[in-house]
Structure formats: structure tokens, C-alpha cells
Amino acid sequence: MTEENLWLRQIAENPGHSQWYIKRFRDLAAAGADLAGEARMIDAMVPRGARILDAGCGTGRVGGILAAAGHDVVGVDLDPDLIAAAQAEHPGPRWLVGDLAELDLPGAGIPDGFDVVVCAGNVMTFVAPATRVEILRRLAGHLRADARVVVGFGTGRGYAFDDFLADAAAAGLRPELLLSTWDLRPFTPDAEFLVALLVPA
User: Fold this and answer.
1) Helices 132-141 & 161-170 angle (0-180, nearest 10)
2) Which backbone phi and psi does 169 adopt, to 5 degrees?
3) How far apart are CA 8 and CA 53, in angstroms?
4) Strands 143-154 and 193-200: what pairing?
5) What does the alpha-carbon distance between residue 34 and residue 25 come to, in Å, rounded to a whole number?
6) What tens digit of pLDDT does each residue of 38-88 get?
7) Contacts 24+ apart (CB under 8 A), 125-129
8) Cα–Cα distance list, 185 to 34, 41, 181, 194 (Å)
9) Do 157 and 122 form a contact (C-beta atoms < 8 A)?
10) Is 126 helix (H, G, I), strand (E, B) or coil?
């Protein structure tokens, strides 16, 4: 894997990639696909009105549902087209264009920490490998006391689960709970997906 952001590379190679991605999820929603699994799990973890950071929010699919459930949501994504779609489809939350490797929400005028930071949709497999630890460190730095970072991604994307857990440790995070799905199935050595609930070490 090269030391570059894979999402930006896809956009460079195919300028229509972001619009394809937006349409894909609109089509899935129109077809009745269940796109709320991640949000249901996060909602169950926090009290109503919690502050939630949707890191790598894309079109706002997860954060939009959480905001509709009564949470105070901030979403950050590198892709301005996806942020524009989030703003259009899910008004209410604060949707910001930004690089997770440089995340500094207090510097952007959002000083309060978060009750949970969710990073769904294979986001961590798209970022430049050299930035993984820094991203995890910055996510952890935006937590309130007794809060969690929740990261989910699948196998076959160039980021082994053991490597991710080592990076999390280097960023000052430890696993509180490991699952193999967003619907709370236990993690097993042969799992094809990881949902890691991380807390400061």
C-alpha cells in the first residue's frame, strides 16, 4: 500500500467517484436497505442528547440518523462533495470539510469534547497508512471523560486487525470491547469485520 490517502487517489483517478458514491447510498436507501446499523449501536451507547463526532462522515448517513434521534452531532470528512451531500440531506448537524490527520475542532471553534467518536464505513482503511496513529490520537484527544472511540472496518483492505490494535495502543487507546458486526456479535479470530470500542489507556 502506498503512503497516500486512498480516497483522494480514487478521486484523482476518477473525478466522478464521489458522485457515484453519493448515488450508491441514495439508491440503497430508496431500495429499503438497512443503512442504520452503526447508528443504532452508537445510539444505544449514550444518553439522549449526547455529543457525537462522526469521523469520516461521508454523506452523513450515520450522523444524520443520530441527530434525528436527538444527539448533538458534528461530522468531518475530507471530501467536499460528500460534505455538501450531508448538508443537503441531513440539515441540523455541523458538517465540516477536514482531514482527520489534522483534526482540531477546538481550533475550529468547537471546544466541547464528545461522548463518543464513531469512525464507520471503512474510513481507517482509506487514510494514508503513515497517518493512522496520528488520526487515532486526535480522535482520542476529542473525547470527554468516560467516552469511547468506535471504529469499524473489514478485512481485505490492507489493514490487518492486529496492526490496527497496535496503532490504537500507540495512540493511547485500549480495546474495551471487540465485536465482529455492528449488531453486537462477538469478535472471533476468523472474523471478516471488526468493530472496536476503544477507551483511553
Assistant:
1) 50
2) -60, -40
3) 22
4) antiparallel
5) 11
6) 999 999 999 999 999 999 999 999 999 999 999 999 999 999 999 999 999
7) 125/6, 125/153, 125/154, 125/157, 125/158, 125/159, 126/5, 126/6, 126/7, 126/56, 127/5, 127/6, 127/100, 127/101, 128/3, 128/4, 128/5, 128/6, 128/101, 129/1, 129/3, 129/158, 129/159
8) 17, 12, 6, 10
9) yes
10) helix
- The pLDDT of residue 2: 46
Residue 50 belongs to some domain of the structure: yes
Q: How many domains does the chain have?
A: 1
C-alpha cell at position 95: 458538517
- State the amino acid at position 36 in one-letter form: A
- CATH number for the domain harbouring residue 183: 3.40.50.150
**Within a domain: 1:** no
Reference 131, options 12, 18, 7; nearest CA is 7
171: number of Cβ within 10 Å: 21
Helices 80-89 and 61-68, axial angle in degrees (round to 10): 30
pLDDT digits (tens, 9 = 90+) for 112-125: 999 999 999 899 99
Question: What residues form DSSP beta bridges with 51?
Answer: 72
Q: Is residue 182 part of a domain?
A: yes
In a domain? residue 112: yes
Sequence letter at residue 151: V
| Residues 42 and 151 sit within 8 Å (Cβ to Cβ) | no
